Each structure stands twice: as structure tokens, then as C-alpha cells.
From TrEMBL:
<dbReference type="InterPro" id="IPR014729">
    <property type="entry name" value="Rossmann-like_a/b/a_fold"/>
</dbReference>
<keyword id="KW-0963">Cytoplasm</keyword>
<dbReference type="Pfam" id="PF10288">
    <property type="entry name" value="CTU2"/>
</dbReference>
<protein>
    <recommendedName>
        <fullName>Cytoplasmic tRNA 2-thiolation protein 2</fullName>
    </recommendedName>
</protein>
<dbReference type="GO" id="GO:0002143">
    <property type="term" value="P:tRNA wobble position uridine thiolation"/>
</dbReference>
<dbReference type="GO" id="GO:0032447">
    <property type="term" value="P:protein urmylation"/>
</dbReference>
<dbReference type="GO" id="GO:0016779">
    <property type="term" value="F:nucleotidyltransferase activity"/>
</dbReference>
<dbReference type="InterPro" id="IPR019407">
    <property type="entry name" value="CTU2"/>
</dbReference>
<comment type="pathway">
    <text>tRNA modification; 5-methoxycarbonylmethyl-2-thiouridine-tRNA biosynthesis.</text>
</comment>
<dbReference type="GO" id="GO:0005829">
    <property type="term" value="C:cytosol"/>
</dbReference>
<keyword id="KW-0819">tRNA processing</keyword>
<dbReference type="GO" id="GO:0016783">
    <property type="term" value="F:sulfurtransferase activity"/>
</dbReference>
<comment type="similarity">
    <text>Belongs to the CTU2/NCS2 family.</text>
</comment>
<dbReference type="GO" id="GO:0000049">
    <property type="term" value="F:tRNA binding"/>
</dbReference>
<comment type="function">
    <text>Plays a central role in 2-thiolation of mcm(5)S(2)U at tRNA wobble positions of tRNA(Lys), tRNA(Glu) and tRNA(Gln). May act by forming a heterodimer with NCS6 that ligates sulfur from thiocarboxylated URM1 onto the uridine of tRNAs at wobble position. Prior mcm(5) tRNA modification by the elongator complex is required for 2-thiolation. May also be involved in protein urmylation.</text>
</comment>
Length: 374
């Protein structure tokens, strides 16, 4: 039997170009490799309309931060934007924006996470951008986090010649160990990661952050945040443009399913697949104690997008219709996650002791860090 017979996909002729064999089905529309790749790149770049060369002033580079976990979505976003910048140079001789790539090294808390060597491989493939790697523990140096720890008397060990990195790490571990449940720990860790990225982008005077979240990831976040008590923040969670953190957010991959992004990574030339850091395996629920709401939602949407992709897209489209409340400069925000406290009941029964000011935490964070309650 010959072994080199091309894989028969059974999808027939490409509905776009009518010539090639289709390899992927996009919302019931068979597409060949070339048309599929064009479709993905167009979807991502369409969301970058504001950053075309015609909106940039010569001599004033607009800087965008791309947080790169080296997972498939952030890597595909980097690939698409890199291609967009190359096209801009070809067409106009200049670019509409510059990319700052930030990788947060999570190995201190997620030992199986991507290493510095993996980031080096990405740098070699996309050498024209600026790269920075910082450990997650350095979030302990962010002013808000220091204030919060001081305010709630969480001991931060004094630097004892061990170097700031060791101190930061000890401090992060102390904080995470004080959190009672797996869901709350995962929640706080993702908030700290988010904080570190936003803090870096602002310190580096980036105009906006471009996130790699797929529509599947946004749907996961929508339901997970609702379950964790931050339903009040959904409108901000999925909208392009101003965020409550004082910097604009964009989600160029928001119209693409995770499975489409995965497929795209295998079709680029050369494929992106060898660069992608493996994702943590889906949670197998052995006990409720160790499973997290985030993990549960990931499992759920992973299964749903296989057969019912429109449900996934619908969750995000529906949420995107919510109107984000206006936030003024003087409005209070949650000390941990940074979301505005406009709609949040801060005085849960029994939480506010006589004469004490209520803790400036949102409802979701009050749930995650009960030790911060007075
Ligand atoms: Zn909060």
C-alpha cells in the first residue's frame, strides 16, 4: 500500500476560490488552505483598523504591547501582526505601529510553563520587535499590590541579601498559600498576571494592549467571571477600546474560534506548531477541591466549539452588546483586580465592622481573598 496518498478530507472544492481542495470548514463553508489562511489573517487585521499607516504621524511611533504566553493564540496574533507590518512597509515604506512583546515567565508557579529558550526561538523567527521577559513574582513590586499587602497586613519578608527576586517570590508564595480554594488561587494569579501586563504597558508608554484571546477564550472568561462574582464587569471584558485600567485594549482574534487558530498554526509556512508551548491538559475532575471554575469553563467550551461553534460566538456577541458604564477619573476601583466599584455592593452583610472603612474590593475579589476582609 502506498503511504504518500494525500489526506482525503472529504470537504470537496473550496467555496471561496472554486479551484482547490478544501481542508477546513469555516461555519459550514469549505475552504482550501490558501483561502483559509487569508480568512484568518483578514479577521485579525480587520480589528487593527485604527493602527493603519494613514493614522500614524511620521516620526511618532505608536507602540502596542502584545502579551505573549507562547500559547497558540498569542503566537498566531504575533504572526498576523508581523505580516501586517511587513505589508505596511511594502505599501508605504513605513509602519502604523511598533510591537513590544512581553512574556511573563510563570515557571515559578507553573513549573511546566514555557522556558526562556522557547521565547528565544520566537525571537529568531520574528526578530524585528522588542522583547521583554519578566518573572510573575515581580508583580509584587507593582505599587497597587504593595499597598494592598501593607493595608491588609500580609507580611512581606524584608530583603535579606537574597536579592529582590527571591523576596518577591517568597512574598507571592505567601499570598497564594493564604488563599483557601483552587478557584480563588487561579483567580488571584490571573489578576496578578493581568496587573503586571497592564503596569508594564503603561510604564513603557504603550498606547494599547493587543490581547490574543480567541472567541472561545472570551466565552470562557465571560461565564467564568460571572460565576466568580464579576458579572458587573462583563461589558469591559470583551470590548475593544478604552478599558477601566487607563489603557486601551484590543482583541484582534475575537472573531476566531480556538480550533480555527489551531488549524491556522499548522498551515503557515513554515508551520508555527513547533514554536507553541503546550497548553496545560484539560482538567479531569478528580475532586471538586482541585478543580477551578476557569478550568471547568475551558473544558466546557472546548467541547462545545467542536459541534456548536455558533453557541461560542453567540456568548461573546451577546456580551459585546452590553454597554460599559462610564468611569470617571475619581471613581473608586477595586484594590486587587482594578475594576471600577460603581456597581458593586461593597458592604456584604457582616463584612464591614463598625467604624472601619469598607475594604475597597469588588464583590468577586472579596470572595477570592477572604483574608483581606476586616
Ligand atoms: Zn476586584
Amino acid at each position: 500500500m502506498p503511504t504518500s496518498v494525500p489526506k482525503e478530507t472529504g470537504l470537496g472544492v473550496c467555496k471561496q476560490c472554486q479551484t482547490n481542495d478544501a481542508v477546513e470548514n469555516v461555519r459550514s463553508r469549505p475552504m482550501c488552505r490558501d483561502c483559509f489562511c487569508k480568512y484568518i489573517a483578514t479577521k485579525a487585521v480587520k480589528r487593527m483598523e485604527k493602527f493603519r499607516t494613514r493614522f500614524s504621524t511620521a516620526g511618532q511611533q505608536r507602540s502596542l504591547l502584545l502579551p505573549l504566553s507562547i500559547g497558540v493564540s498569542s503566537l498566531v496574533l504575533l504572526h498576523c501582526l508581523d505580516e501586517q507590518l511587513k505589508r505596511q512597509i511594502e505599501n508605504t515604506g513605513r509602519t502604523g505601529f511598533a510591537l513590544q512583546i512581553l512574556h511573563v515567565d510563570m515557571t515559578a508557579v507553573v513549573p511546566e510553563g514555557p522556558s526562556a529558550t522557547q521565547l528565544d526561538v520566537v525571537k529568531e523567527r520574528y526578530p524585528t520587535h522588542t522583547y521583554t521577559s519578566i518573572p510573575i513574582s515581580s508583580v509584587m513590586e507593582v505599587e497597587d499590590v504593595q499597598d494592598l499587602l501593607k493595608q491588609y497586613g500580609i507580611d512581606t519578608p524584608a530583603p535579606l541579601g537574597d536579592g529582590i527576586e527571591t523576596t518577591n517570590l517568597q512574598c507571592l508564595q505567601t499570598l497564594l498559600q493564604a488563599i483557601p480554594t483552587a478557584t480563588a488561587r487561579a483567580d488571584v494569579l490571573s489578576i496578578l498576571l493581568h496587573k503586571l501586563i497592564v503596569d508594564f504597558a503603561k510604564a513603557d508608554t504603550c498606547e494599547a494592549i493587543v490581547w490574543g484571546d480567541s472567541t472561545t477564550r472570551l466565552a470562557e472568561k465571560t461565564l467564568a467571571e460571572t460565576a466568580k462574582g464579576r458579572g458587573f464587569a462583563l461589558a469591559w471584558l470583551v470590548s475593544d477600546g478604552p478599558s477601566p485600567y487607563g489603557i486601551d485594549f484590543y482583541y484582534p482574534m475575537r472573531d476566531l474560534l480556538k480550533k480555527e487558530i489551531n488549524a491556522y498554526a499548522t498551515y503557515t509556512n513554515p508551520p508555527l506548531t513547533p514554536l507553541i508551548a503546550p497548553e496545560p491538559p484539560l482538567e479531569t475532575v478528580v475532586s471538586a477541591k482541585h478543580s477551578t471554575i476557569d478550568g471547568l469553563m475551558r473544558n466546557y467550551f472546548d467541547a462545545v466549539e467542536k459541534n456548536y461553534p455558533s453557541i461560542v460566538a453567540n456568548v461573546v456577541r451577546t456580551t459585546a452588546k452590553l454597554q460599559a458604564p462610564g468611569v470617571g477619573a475619581g471613581d473608586a476601583s477595586c484594590s486587587l483586580c482594578g475594576l471600577p466599584l460603581l456597581l458593586t455592593p461593597r458592604t456584604e452583610q457582616g463584612l464591614v465592622a463598625e467604624g472601619k472603612a469598607p475594604p475597597p474590593l469588588c464583590y468577586g475579589c472579596l470572595r477570592s481573598v477572604p483574608m483581606f476582609s476586616p
